[in-house]
Specification:
The protein is α/β, with parallel strands linked by helices. It has twelve helices and 13 strands.
Length: 373
């Protein structure tokens, strides 16, 4: 059904007022899905218009979009989208800052530890000395990523593990907000064999010290770039310091479409949201800012790769991973991250007179208020 915006708003106000433990009827669920489709269809139409204006747009085997030189597209993303997926290596359960877009916002003091001396690899806790056993028993991945939360809180513990995976020929990338990066620890990471370092420049508001650290990192690490959730704050801060950032010689900028969960959603209530394939929920402006960002990079020839790491890219990632794991046709771990769908969070977009559905029809008989039993 092509539900009207007015009818969707009426029903969503009702759904938002329901007790949390009350389940929707089947027809009510159809109404929710119809409204989500209408919102997503309108968003995709807007995005297609923006994509059409990007010169030199490229695709990585139909799985993601980017602009710029092919050889500067991050190898870690190729591993994620084409190889055996993104194998997460976890160690540090602390962070030195709190960002409103963080998926652990509000719970940073309660993140479970991995364990003294231990590393979590593929959900299994291992000591560094266990890596030889792991690599001899299981097929090594095309790449791994060091995540969870700020590795530079204890970066000296990472060098040995990085060195062992480097010797095994596994591509490695690591995420950091960069505030604790120094020439000493960046050099040590490079000497240990880290292939790729990604700075969340938006976490620091494009701090000058982090921009300088990007330039230092380029002297020691083969690929260095930025990976940041695309927000209006990052977009504005980047363009104020664009020349200084580009002068670091970085290789790529991954513009991640910001998606929300129970932790960070309260920081974005009131924004126009949409759900991609009934999965990740995001502010509409996030990917649209990315597409404008990519257009500027292409038109101004920044000389680096700018990657549209969108919700659709995340879907492609999860389809690829399940395929490599031997999953059935269509299997994916991509899904909505809310235990209870946040109906109230979609009231702003449905109340926005400037946001229009593409086509509308009256509700079928039996779907209007008072007709459902």
């Amino acid at each position: 059904m092509k539900i009207s915006k007015k009818d969707a708003l009426t029903w969503f106000r009702f759904f938002a007022a329901l007790p949390e433990d009350e389940e929707l009827l089947t027809k009510q669920t159809e109404i929710v899905y119809a409204a989500m489709y209408q919102i997503e269809a309108a968003v995709e139409a807007q995005n297609r218009a923006l994509i059409a204006g990007i010169p030199g747009l490229k695709s990585l085997c139909g799985r993601t979009l980017y602009v710029g030189p092919d050889d500067r597209f991050p190898a870690g993303c190729k591993s994620c989208l084409l190889g055996t997926g993104l194998s997460a290596v976890r160690r540090t359960n602390r962070c030195n800052i709190q960002c409103k877009f963080c998926y652990n916002y509000g719970e940073l003091d309660a993140i479970p530890p991995i364990g003294e001396g231990l590393w979590e690899i593929g959900g299994t806790r291992l000591y560094e000395r266990d890596l030889d056993l792991l690599l001899s028993v299981q097929k090594k991945p095309t790449g791994i990523a060091y995540v969870y939360l700020e590795p530079f809180m204890e970066i000296e513990k990472y060098y040995g593990v990085v060195r062992r995976f480097h010797e095994a020929g596994v591509h490695q990338h690591l995420y950091t907000n960069g505030l604790l990066a120094t020439e000493e620890n960046l050099r040590a990471l490079g000497e240990s064999g880290l292939d790729e370092l990604r700075f969340n420049l938006g976490a620091s508001g494009c701090a000058d010290s982090v921009i300088e650290a990007i330039g230092v990192a380029k002297r020691y690490i083969p690929q260095v770039g930025i990976e940041t959730p695309m927000t209006p704050e990052f977009y504005d801060a980047f363009f104020k310091k664009k020349e200084k950032i580009l002068a670091t010689g970085l290789d790529f900028i991954n513009c991640a479409e910001l998606h929300l969960n129970d932790n960070n959603l309260p920081n974005y209530l009131g924004e126009n949201l949409y759900a991609c394939r009934l999965g990740y929920i995001s502010p509409i402006w996030s990917r649209q800012l990315t597409l404008r960002f990519m257009r500027a990079a292409a038109e101004e020839n920044w000389g680096l790769a700018v990657h549209d790491c969108s919700n659709m890219t995340k879907l492609a990632r999860d389809l690829n991973l399940k395929s490599k794991e031997g999953g059935w046709f269509g299997a994916s771990g991509y899904a909505c991250e809310f235990a209870r769908f946040p109906y109230e969070a979609f009231l702003p977009v449905l109340e926005d007179d400037g946001f229009q559905f593409i086509g509308e029809e009256p509700l079928p008989k039996g779907y209007n208020p008072g007709e459902l039993y």
